[in-house]
Every structure is written in structure tokens, then in C-alpha cells.
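A note on notation is needed here, since sequence and fold are reported together in a single record. The reader may check this reading against the record printed directly beneath this paragraph.
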Amino acid sequence: MYHERVARRKRSLYDELMSRLGLPALLPFLAGCFFGGGQSSRVEQVPEDLRHPRIVVPRAPDRHGYGDLSRVSPGAWATYREGGRLLTLAAVAAEGDALWIEVIDEGEPRQISARLVGPDGVIRKAYYGEISSDGRKSAVEPQPLEQADRIVPPRLAESGREVGDESVVIAGKELRARKVTLRFEDLEGRLIQDVSLWHQDVPPLYAGSPDGGLVRRQTGSMLVELVDFGKDARPLLAIPR
């Protein structure tokens, strides 16, 4: 009987409390009972450097490793396929006696290295940025330079040369290209063949010869071929001034 009286007394106190305070006033108390009474969760602002993380900037060589730029004018560009890589070289602006050359890896995102190249092939400064397929651009960052590898090709004896013409179609444009076939013999007597095509309309950004810019080159299993070219290049990166 004693326990029943205590239970009735507790229910009576609870009913009286509910009638005086109401359920809304008890919610904070109940939440504290069920969830331990700790501090409520807070939504804090994400720092700017975390919302827009800085890109990892690769190093650039300190020398231009492609064609002689003395016959290249601003606006010229050419895209090449090197195995699984798609590479664009574009002369986007002149600055004094130097040219701004953008070297673009056509992936996702596009990785762009803008390099100020002097007439001697020395890269004076460089900047790096990325552009996603949806048009989003990263910040443009200074690109550190490192000493380019000085690769000395082995001395080979030329054993034969043939020169002719070959018609090729590049991005819907038919070119009558000069074809040069060279044969070399290495120190062990093995024959190496280099077949290259050149055309005067192609800017010598990747490689050049008296016959114009490179259209295609195959040496053994290595193949480089022109995909497209033009004269309307515009800067993709906004270089800080």
C-alpha cells in the first residue's frame, strides 16, 4: 500500500507540473536528460583557405624544351598527341624580346604552365594554374624553375636519306607535307629509322625545320602527331602584374 501511495503522489506532482509549465517549457529539460546535458552543436564558418584549397604547383624546366621560337608570332598554337598525352603549345603574348608560351596538358583539369621565354630559350619566369571542364579556374601561382635535363643524343651515323611528299588531313585541313626519312646506324650496327612530316603553315612551336613545323614524327615505337593548329591563341591564365 505504501508503494502505491508513493506512485500516486509522483503522478500527481507530474500532472501538476505539466499543467503549470506546459510541454514546451519542459523540452530543454527532457533533451538534457536524454542527451547528457552537453553543449549544443555549433556550425562554425569554414576558413577561406579550406573552402578554396591551394593547388600543388609542379616545377617547370628553366629552358624551353621545344622548337626555336624565333619564327613564332603571338597567336600561334599547335596541339600534339604524344602517346596518351594531349599537349598544346600556344604563343599568347610578347613582352619585350621574349614570348609568353602556355604549355597546356589537355586533361581534367587542364594544367597550364605560362612561361616567359627569351630568344635564347631561357625561361625567365613561369606561372601555373588549372581549369576544370566546367570552367572553374584555380588561383594562378608562381611556378618554381628547376634545371632542365641536358640530354645529349648518342652520335649516330646517317646511313640513308629520302625526301618526298605526303598528303595528310589535320582537323579537316588537307596538307601536302614534306616527308623526310632518315636512317641511322648505332654503335652496335642496328638500323634506326626516323620518319618526319613538315609543313610551312604549321607554327614551329613543337619542332621546326626549313620545311616548316612538325606534322608527324615516328622513331621506332615513339609517335608524335599534330592534332590541330591555328593563329588565334589567347591567354588562358591571367598573369599577375
